[in-house]
């Protein structure tokens, strides 16, 4: 085991070092494929899902950015495999986004040595010489001081070793994300390139943009270039199937991967399940309504910290996860209709948009009642980081670092 952090790479610059760094908003597309679904948390056997077809189809539909994490089980490996089997697609044709710092459900290591090891491992799994954007993963689980250390190391890897191009943070509590972004700017004089928020701009919860001093406003004032909205289906909560509220032990429902780990309380699960019936009565699927509402409303509301289209127009960027070709096609269909409205400026008069707004505002929000905008604690009560102090910064002797040093002549 080792805790060494080597010096900067010498010799020929890597692609990340050689490439210019325009604002991230000009690099990212407005729709990003999230691959958290390439994971046992969402499907019983990720290896049997059509991940190759999902990735190749996404590219054919013009989705050119992929979001993953080493915490998502085999996600990085599956994504890397799928991309490597598309030799006709150059590395410059897509954007790779991953995370670092979260090891297991209750284990985090934000030390420089671990952050560097995690980045090198991601490079290997994704078959690439550089990463486009790296977040600190679920940063509310560690101290602000640890987040600052990790951000500084990611920037060192960007500036001295050319292993990545942009740096951000991700997490669940939006007020915490805003406070950390403010802290990073104050302590370093440099704002974060990106913040990834999840589950906070959906038909159930709009906390990311609520209030005069909303987290979105604070993030923008802290200089964050792009704020991305993820988990618009509430990590499976806002689906026709829903998540069992309190399944009987040994029942089929109790075997649901989502039921086992999803942090939502039973009351929220029950309230969310009602929304599927409302959608069905309107001859809609809950997924379609939830996707369309979030894509369209965030494109508008999130534009203040959105991605920049070729026309110069900014729109809120969204990360969408799918586990089948059908889910991908559904998402693309809704997004294309949103894009068409944005291009023509006819969103306010779109019959489809008006129907979705009516269903959400007049029927779904009243049905949610007290559960609208409800959030769970993250971390939960009594959380303890199970990464022992003496193990922080200790990296596996698995050849990842040695292999990199051999290639770079360190």
Automatic annotation (TrEMBL):
Q: State the UniProt keywords alphabetically.
A: Oxidoreductase
Query: Which InterPro entries does the protein's record reference?
Result: AKR, Ara2-like, NAD(P)_OxRdtase_dom_sf, NADP_OxRdtase_dom
A Gene Ontology biological process in which this protein takes part is: dehydro-D-arabinono-1,4-lactone biosynthetic process
Taxonomically, the superkingdom here is Eukaryota
Give one Pfam family.
Aldo_ket_red
Residue numbers spanned by region Disordered: 1-23, 243-265
Transmembrane regions listed in the UniProt entry: none
Q: Which GO terms describe its molecular function?
A: D-arabinose 1-dehydrogenase [NAD(P)+] activity
Q: Which residues form the NADP-dependent oxidoreductase domain?
A: 30-335
Any one cellular-component term (Gene Ontology): cytosol
Protein name per its UniProtKB record: Aldo/keto reductase family-domain-containing protein
This chain's source organism reads: Immersiella caudata
Top-level taxonomy: Eukaryota, Fungi, Dikarya, Ascomycota, Pezizomycotina
């Amino acid at each position: 085991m080792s805790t060494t952090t080597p010096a900067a790479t010498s010799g020929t610059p890597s692609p990340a070092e050689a490439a210019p760094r325009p604002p991230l908003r000009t690099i990212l597309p407005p729709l990003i494929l999230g691959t958290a679904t390439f994971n046992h948390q969402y499907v019983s056997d990720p290896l049997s899902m059509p991940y190759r077809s999902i990735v190749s189809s996404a590219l054919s539909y013009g989705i050119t950015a992929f979001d993953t994490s080493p915490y998502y089980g085999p996600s990085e490996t599956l994504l890397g495999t799928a991309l490597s089997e598309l030799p006709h697609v150059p590395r410059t044709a897509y954007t790779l986004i991953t995370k670092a710092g979260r090891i297991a459900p209750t284990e985090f290591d934000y030390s420089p040595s671990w952050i560097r090891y995690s980045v090198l491992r991601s490079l290997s799994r994704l078959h690439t010489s550089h990463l486009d954007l790296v977040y600190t993963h679920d940063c509310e689980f560690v101290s602000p001081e640890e987040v600052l250390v990790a951000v500084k190391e990611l920037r060192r890897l960007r500036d001295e070793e050319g292993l990545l191009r942009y740096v951000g943070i991700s997490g669940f509590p939006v007020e915490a994300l805003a406070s950390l972004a403010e802290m990073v700017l104050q302590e370093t004089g440099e704002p974060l390139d990106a913040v990834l928020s999840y589950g906070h701009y959906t038909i159930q919860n709009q906390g990311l943009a609520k209030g005069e001093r909303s987290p979105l406003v604070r993030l923008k004032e802290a200089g964050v270039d792009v704020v991305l909205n993820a988990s618009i289906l509430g990590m499976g909560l806002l689906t026709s199937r829903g998540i069992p509220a309190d399944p009987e032990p040994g029942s089929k429902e109790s075997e649901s991967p989502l039921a086992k780990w999803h942090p939502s309380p039973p009351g929220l699960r029950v309230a969310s399940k009602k929304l599927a019936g409302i959608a069905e009565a309107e001859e809609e699927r809950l997924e379609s309504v939830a996707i369309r509402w979030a894509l369209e409303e965030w494109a508008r509301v999130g534009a203040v910290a959105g991605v920049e289209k070729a026309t110069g127009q900014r729109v809120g960027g969204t990360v969408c996860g799918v586990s089948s070709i059908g889910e991908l096609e559904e998402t693309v269909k809704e997004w294309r209709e949103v894009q068409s409205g944005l291009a023509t400026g006819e969103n306010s008069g779109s019959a489809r948009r008006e129907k979705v707004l009516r269903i959400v505002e007049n029927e779904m929000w009243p049905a949610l009642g007290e559960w609208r905008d409800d959030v769970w604690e993250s971390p939960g009560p009594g959380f303890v980081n199970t990464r022992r102090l003496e193990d922080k910064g200790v990296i596996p002797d698995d050849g990842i670092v040695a292999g990199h040093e051999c290639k770079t002549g360190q």
